[in-house]
Amino acid sequence: MPIVDAPLIAHRGASAVTPENTLIAVERAAELGARWIETDVRLTSDGGLVMIHDDTLHRTTSGSGSVALTPLSQILALDAGAWFGPEFAGTRVPELSDFLTCILDCGLGLQLELKENFGREEELVDAVTSVIKDEWPVGDKPLFVSSFSERCMRICAKELPEVPRAIATEFVPCNIVDRLRETQCQIIHFQASCVTEQDFATLRAADIEFAVATINEPDTARAMLSKGATSVLSDDPMLLDL
Question: How many CB atoms within 10 Å of residue 82?
Fold first, then answer.
C-alpha cells in the first residue's frame, strides 16, 4: 500500500485561494475536500519553528530579511495575510506545534517539508523531532517528512525511524533506487517540467512511490496520475474535480 492514500496533496494548503502555509489555508483545504496537506517548516534565529516556504520574509509577510536570522517573536508579530488580500489582513505565521494541532483537528494527513540552512540540519531535525514526538500521534495519523536535503533525511531516519521519508529533487535521478537507499527514503518528489517518459518507465519498473509538483492544470494532473504517480501536489485542492 502506498504511504500517501490520496491522488492530491494540497500544496501549502489551499494556497490558490488563501495565504500559503497559514492555518486558514489548512482549514480551507479541508473544507474543499483535501485529505493531505504539504507545508514547509524553517528554523528562526533562536531555534523556533515557523511555517514559511521562502528563506526570506518579504514575499509572504510584512517583514523583511532572512527567516534564519530573525527571532521567533518578531516573526510571530508579522502580518502573513495582507499580501494575499485585504480580507486576510491580521493572519499570522503559525508555529509548527499550532500547525500540527490544526492538521489533526481537520483530520488531514501531512507532508512536512524541512527547509534546511546549511550547517543547521541537525538543529532543524532535532527541533522538529521534539515537536512531533510531543504533538503528533505517530503511527495513528498519516504523516511523512520530506526535504531537498539528503542530510536532513538521513538524520530523520535515525531520529524518527517510524515516520516515512521523501526526498525532493528537481529531476529524477538516473540511479533512483540507489538514491533512495542512500537517503533512507521511501518516496521521491520531483518537478513536472523535468520528468521524461523514460523516467516514468523507470519509476514504474522499480515500483517506487512518487509524486509530482506543482501542478495546477487538471489535464496535466490526470496525465501524471495515469503514468504512475501516487499523487500530485497542487495549489488547488479541487483540481481533480474540474
Answer: 16
Question: How many Cβ atoms sit within 10 Å of the Cβ of residue 96?
Answer: 22
Res. 40: pLDDT tops 90: yes
Q: How many residues does the chain have?
A: 242
CA distance 20 to 39: 9
Hey, what's the cell of 15? 494556497
What whole-number distance in Å separates Cα of residue 88 and Cα of residue 27? 14
pLDDT, position 1: 83
What does the pLDDT look like over 72-82, one tens digit per residue? Answer: 999 999 999 99
Dmax over CA atoms of the chain, in Å, equals 50
Judge contact between 81 and 89, C-beta under 8 A. Answer: yes
Q: DSSP alpha helices (H): ranges in 95-175?
A: 96-106, 121-135, 150-159
Q: Kindly report each contact of residues 160-163 with a partner whose C-beta sits within 8 Å and lies 24 or more positions away, as own/partner.
A: 160/129, 160/132, 162/138, 163/132, 163/138
